[in-house]
Structure to design on (161 residues):
């Protein structure tokens, strides 16, 4: 039996996003309530593992919607040389690095208000990246970042060049 009164749940992003998603893209769901039920607030697909090259664009884009950001927490093992701070749009953003391996970046606004973004590996295929981003931005998502990457096939080690 099917319940025709139930809304159909889709895991797809709108068609326009499918055309636009490429490395360097951030897809963010910003909640306007204090009750943030999902595990993640969005996803980011950097072009490389060079944080000094990748992070400024993300910070600038997020600052437009969130206001000034003060800190970014990253997995130390996932990035090439991590600075302790970056100057982005004439503001100092502190970089905290931890050996956590949790496939996320934590962006802090103020003292305690943080947003957790899934980090899509730069080598991911567009299809896998779209699927991971769609899962990450679902408001009811309870799947951890690492499992989203496994489920969508983006957890594979980068191919050797």
């Amino acid at each position: 039996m099917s319940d025709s009164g139930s809304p159909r749940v889709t895991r797809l992003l709108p068609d326009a996003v499918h055309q636009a998603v490429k490395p360097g893209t951030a897809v963010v769901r910003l909640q306007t309530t204090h009750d943030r039920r999902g595990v993640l607030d969005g996803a980011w697909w950097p072009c490389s593992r060079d944080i000094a090259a990748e992070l400024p664009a993300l910070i600038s884009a997020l600052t437009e919607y969130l206001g000034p950001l003060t800190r970014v927490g990253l997995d130390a093992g996932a990035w090439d040389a991590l600075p302790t701070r970056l100057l982005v749009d004439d503001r100092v953003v502190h970089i905290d690095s931890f050996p956590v391996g949790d496939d996320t970046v934590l962006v802090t606004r103020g003292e305690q208000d943080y947003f957790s973004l899934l980090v899509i590996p730069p080598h991911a295929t567009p299809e896998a990246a779209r699927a991971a981003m769609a899962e990450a931005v679902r408001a009811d998502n309870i799947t951890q970042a690492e499992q989203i990457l496994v489920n969508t096939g983006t957890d594979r080690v980068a191919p050797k060049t």
About this structure: The longest helix spans residues 51-66.
